[in-house]
Amino acid sequence: NPPVKFLTTRAKLSRTLAVASVYLALIAILSLLLVSFVPSLIQQVMSINVHFENIVEGISRFFEQPLFIFGFSIDLMDVYKEVSGTLQNIISPLASRTVSFLIGLASGFAWLIFVLIVSFYLLKDLGKLGRSLDELVPADYREEVRWLGREINVIWSAFFRSQLVLCAVVGTLVGVTTWAVGVRNALILGIMAGVLEIIPNVGPTIAAIPAVLIAYFQGSTHLPISNSWFALLVIGLYVVIQQMENNILVPRIIGRSLNLHP
């Protein structure tokens, strides 16, 4: 709505033309993103399928070897037998879900088009809708309800905008840093981190798990270090990004937009 207001007040466009202009710009940006990133995204999903058996085999070998701690040997076979069935049931179907992923991607894009169409008409007739709702409120309370509605709109709009910016920044940081150190499928990991950023605290941890597994069982594409050290490096990167988010990004992006004290 802010771009529409800008075009109607500054550029003196009609509301219909302003909404149409905003949506044309949005469609152009989405088309550019699709052309730029979707082929690479599909390629990386296929790459995960290619390397999937190696990851599962590496997990199996890890549990088959005894674990030595302070000179004591711990047999992990019992643990492996307990978790192997669950692990196969959870992870194995992922290797055959590429087609389902692509279908889901197309379905999500169709829903996006539907939402854009509905929101187009909502933006176009927002004034009429507001006046209709205003008439439902008793006259004595209309001014208070209008003020409350404006405050809610300002606060929630600021929160959602700042949350989207935070997701984009964190996703970009994860994607760039994992690509820089040589983690395979960095684009998918960045998108996953950005999407899961919506879930406080738990989301970043879930996003880090596949990155650490890929680092441990596949290693780096260009750093000359062992897989174990590389996995620790990736864990460190995620911890640093998480601390940066909590102490710098959230106070600056969300805190400032909502006028909250750090």
Automatic annotation (TrEMBL):
One of its GO terms (biological process) is transmembrane transport. It holds the Pfam family AI-2E_transport. It is found in: Cell membrane. The chain crosses the membrane at residues 21-42, 101-123, 163-183, 195-217, 223-241. It is a multi-pass membrane protein. Keywords: Cell membrane, Membrane, Transmembrane, Transmembrane helix, Transport. InterPro entries: AI-2E-like. The keyword Transport applies. The keyword Calcium does not apply. One of its GO terms (cellular component) is plasma membrane. Belongs to the autoinducer-2 exporter (AI-2E) (TC 2.A.86) family. This is AI-2E family transporter. The lineage of its organism: unclassified sequences, metagenomes, ecological metagenomes.
